[in-house]
Amino acid sequence: MHAAVRAEGVVKRFGPTTALDGVDLTVRPGEAHALVGRNGAGKSTLVSVLTGMARPDAGSVTFGGEPAPPYGDTSAWRAKAACVYQKSMIVPDLTVAENLYLGRFPGTGPIRWRELRARARELLAEYGVDVEPGERAKDLGVEQRQFVEIARALSFGARLIILDEPTARLDAGGIERLFAKLRELQEQGVAFLFISHHLQEVYELCDTVTVYRDARHIVTAPVAELPKAELVAAMTGEGAVADGASAALVSQAGEPVEEREPVLRTEGLALAGAYEPVDLAVRPGEVLGLAGAAASGNTAIGETLVGMRAPDGGRISVGGRAVRTGSVPDALEAGIGYVPEDRHRQGLVLTRSVAENATLTVADQLGPYGTVLPSRTREFAQGMIDSLDIKTSGPGQEVTGLSGGNQQKVVIARALARDPGVLVAIRPTAGVDVKSKDALLGVVRRVADGGAAAVIVSDELDDLRVCDRVLVLFHGRTVAEFGSGWSDRELVAAMEGFVPGAGDGVAAGKTEES
Ligand SMILES: Nc1ncnc2c1ncn2[C@@H]1O[C@H](COP(=O)(O)OP(=O)(O)OP(=O)(O)O)[C@@H](O)[C@H]1O
To answer: A GO molecular function for this record (predicted)?
Structure first.
């Protein structure tokens, strides 16, 4: 049987950077194949090559044994492979049906909406996707949106679907349903290339895994034959590391944290529709986790702390001084550093250099009387590049040219540039590879150990493990608090609304209401 896709000896250069250096990849029909590698390994570049978005400098790509379409023939490429990105490619203001048939409305003459909708319903049913064709795309949840994108790709004839971090915005139930759907489609012969930094998902879903490192192919093996430690070793090029390396990240501070005056406090902080009044006290040296699934209110609290959202009521203070709520400049001035979740929207000026982005908040410290000295900016940025291990050709490189994970490190560099007294990080390791993840969380830990208070807002267990204390939110309320030493099961259960000790099947919100 021919491979669903076979790439051989693919080379892709961007100026002086070699993003792919003669790599191979073979995905068989019906296979779920994981492609993993550290940030900057070349994964996204390969996706661009496999979807006809980038023309390789050398090498060949075949689909089902036939040569790939000519570069630029978009409709021919669409019939071969499609990538479902973290960011939606569908048009928010159009309906599901319109999105499905965008650019290929059936027949000529005026569009017959009723017929279009009926066809869309048929198509969705064919792939077992339970979405109403008349619904606007913007009203869909992440999960439904991904199903629509997959159905759309399959309807063009593509038999290779690439999923780029598809679980990043799904909760546990959503991940389960996505995986079930993928397995169903695998049985119909659809092949998946799964790109993820979540290695446990690779083990759960995939048959085969390929590792790239520094633009090169390192290994391809059945997942069952590659233990996690060896997989990580292949990714990093270092000896196998033991599981739970991040355990070393737990607080090292001398004086007991409980005896210090809190640096960050909130009193009665509330935002209707997002979260109920919450009193927080985070001491110097402490990392507080705000855990919760999507829409639990944890992100909204984080965004309120950094001034992105104005609360309905309540107070925030840093070091005893009141902070004006709802103002980002005031939060910054008060010493609150912010690592946002969405680096594209909130984090970076993509067309500026690494150095400029890293120093955006400290321009006042880089030269006399409102001037910015380029040499000082570069020097400052170089320090950040070294300490956070940012993979870049230098401080002058535009951040658009960095891989996703390395862009996230620039965001963190910027938050740290002002020596914040309080660091608030929202899902700080989204899209970051295993090793950088430990490095980034290690930075948060060090900032706290250096006397600052840190708040990590996340539903990622690895992020939360670094915390000294974790508050769990569900439907806007704090439903549980854990010190260190919680088990994955109890924390996940609390995030899903099951209060520890309350007995199975009892949702926290419901017990309190009844
Ligand atoms: N448009 C571009 N211009 C310049 N360099 C680029 C461009 N796109 C990618 N690169 C470089 O190519 C290399 C591979 O990047 P790529 O985005 O493929 O990595 P990745 O494995 O997808 O990483 P991540 O996990 O962080 O998304 C990186 O060094 C990156 O800086």
So the answer is: ATP binding
Domain 5-245: give its CATH architecture: 3-Layer(aba) Sandwich (3.40)
Tokens of 301: 């609290």
- On the question of a common fold for 5-245 and 260-335+420-514, the answer reads yes
Domain positions in the chain are: 5-245, 260-335+420-514, 349-417
Cα separation values, 80 from 31, 164, 320, Å: 16, 17, 60
Rounded mean pLDDT, 445-467: 90
Percentage of the chain exceeding pLDDT 90: 42
Question: What does the pLDDT read at residue 245?
Answer: 40
Cα–Cα dist 398/356, whole Å: 9
Q: Are 131 and 144 in contact (CB under 8 A)?
A: yes
Quote the ipTM score. Answer: 0.97
CATH superfamily name and code, 260-335+420-514? P-loop containing nucleotide triphosphate hydrolases (3.40.50.300)
Which of 12, 17, 202 to mutate to test ligand 1, by most ligand atoms within 8 A of the CB atom? 17
**Can you count the helices (H) and strands (E) in the chain?**
17, 20
- Calculate how far, in angstroms, residue 241's C-alpha sits from the geometric centre of ligand 1: 25
425, 464 in Cβ contact below 8 A?
no
User: Is 327 close to ligand 1, i.e. is its CB under 6 Å away?
Assistant: no
Copy the structure tokens of residue 135.
């619904």
**What is the number of the ligand 1 atom nearest to the C-alpha of 433?**
25
Using the structure block, give the residue that is written with the tokens 């679980």: 167
- Phi, psi for residue 47 in degrees, rounded to 5: -60, -45
Cβ atoms of residues 32 and 206 within 8 Å: yes
Nearest residue (by CA) to ligand 1, atom 4, is: 401
Residue 486 phi/psi, 5° resolution?
-75, 160
- Asked whether the predicted pLDDT for residue 13 surpasses 80, the reply is yes
Model confidence at 181: pLDDT above 50: yes
